Amino acid sequence: MRCGNCGGSHNDNCTFIGLKCANCRGPHNPKDKECSYYIKEKETIKLMDEQHLSYHQAKQQTLTNRSKTNKNQHLIKTEPTQQPTQQSQGESKQTPERKPNPTIPKIKPT
């Protein structure tokens, strides 16, 4: 049996302060739905059901799909999402990143 708090091989009298997942060793509860191990297992079970695969076949396919995704992850540029802001009646509806660059007036030589 594993400890639900630290992932150790005990189940009582844990002195560890904080959380450590027994599956992925991350700083969360092992029942957390955001756990990478949980997500992989969920994908594996979904493949088993949809494609009528054995657990081993689905697990291999899940790992292959994840390695292809992770290999090119550095090429994907992600933009931070912006929350919509309230505008007063006199404000422009343009967002700051789409405002045209101000033009500098040309000075004629004298």
From TrEMBL:
Residues 57-75 have a biased composition (Polar residues). Residues 56-110 are annotated as: Disordered. Residues 78-93 have a biased composition (Low complexity). This is Uncharacterized protein. It comes from Sinanodonta woodiana. The lineage of its organism: Eukaryota, Metazoa, Spiralia, Lophotrochozoa, Mollusca.
